[in-house]
Design brief:
By secondary structure, this protein is of the alpha+beta class. The protein is 47% helix and 12% strand. Bound molecules: glutamine.
């Protein structure tokens, strides 16, 4: 597999010129658009990597399924799904339009920004320091890596420019979807997005999700199986924003992307995969990263469908 990954990274890298790094969060604009890395764990714990697999990046929306898992485990299905739906939107991740038109007064799913903001408001704790520590501990546990932290400059960069998210949050409060201090919730959301990790970390987390919450390396159950079924199905239907359908057809692997260029991909019972390529397509997904996954899926027959 190693030789194949090396080859795929070289072949896919050229696509980076067709995309752009996210610059609506100014600090993300500094990313090197040519970076591309992949990391894969198999069920026996074998690890393969190629390209810039050791480079840290902010996980952005890849944090959404992770914080969602935490909320689900802490509060249960009923409470979590009273706040967000389970349906794909077909709209961009930062779209506001359906917040008013969807009659249930909740965001359509937990992976659009409005849904993720609603979910992070459920995390319990005295203050944001305690809450972000709780989120970080959970992600460190899943990744089996203590060295995962928040990138303060990316956090601050989004905090000063994130008015679109700010407007969504005020709207959610107005319709009674969230309670509490709006600016504090928003800060927590920006912090979760600014968590830094590598492809290797994403692959490690995905390996646990691929085995119903059981970690085949540590040989123990880390998450309840039901929680992983819920999050994996939502990743399959809503994980790649308004490109989720095309991605299902071409790649067929439950995945979650972020505008930092990361993609976490879960091949049930087989592989945990992490990809990083900050040059994004028009929908906000890593342009070369999607190609890497498509090649891998073809070669190893990874589509779940
Ligand atoms: N922090 C980003 C935002 O809210 C995350 C979006 C993303 O990765 N799609 O805009």
């Amino acid at each position: 597999m190693k030789a194949f990954l090396d080859e795929v990274v070289i072949n896919s890298k050229v696509l980076s010129v067709n995309g752009n790094v996210a610059n609506y969060i100014p600090a993300l604009g500094k990313a090197n658009s040519e970076d591309l890395g992949i990391a894969v764990y198999d069920h026996e714990g074998n690890f393969y990597e190629a390209g810039n697999s050791d480079k840290k990046f902010t996980i952005q929306s890849v944090s959404k399924p992770l914080v969602f898992l935490l909320a689900l485990i802490d509060q249960g299905e009923e409470i979590v799904f009273s706040k967000v739906g389970m349906e794909p939107t077909g709209d961009p991740f930062n779209s506001i339009i359906r917040l008013e038109t969807f009659d249930k007064h909740k965001p359509l799913n937990p992976f659009i920004n409005a849904g993720a903001i609603s979910i992070v408001s459920l995390v319990k704790g005295e203050d944001n320091i305690e809450k972000i520590e709780k989120i970080l501990s959970f992600i460190r546990l899943l990744a089996d890596n203590e060295n995962i932290n928040v990138d303060n400059s990316v956090f601050l960069s989004e905090k000063v420019t994130g008015d679109r998210n700010r407007s969504m949050l005020y709207f959610l409060k107005a319709i009674g979807n969230i309670e509490g201090n709006v600016e504090e919730i928003l800060d927590l959301y920006f912090m979760q997005c600014a968590i830094k990790a590598t492809c290797k970390d994403l692959a490690r987390i995905a390996l646990v999700l691929a085995h119903g919450g059981y970690d085949p390396i540590r040989k123990k159950q880390i998450l309840p199986k039901r929680a992983t079924q819920i999050v994996n199905s939502l990743m399959a239907t809503c994980g790649m924003y308004d490109e989720s359908g095309e991605f299902a057809v071409k790649v067929g692997i439950p995945s979650k992307s972020g505008v930092g260029g990361g993609i976490l991909s879960v091949v049930p019972k087989r592989y945990g995969i992490g990809v990083f390529g900050p040059s994004l397509d028009i929908k906000g997904n890593s342009i070369a990263g999607v190609k890497v996954l498509e090649s891998l899926s073809d070669k190893y027959d990874l589509s779940i469908y």
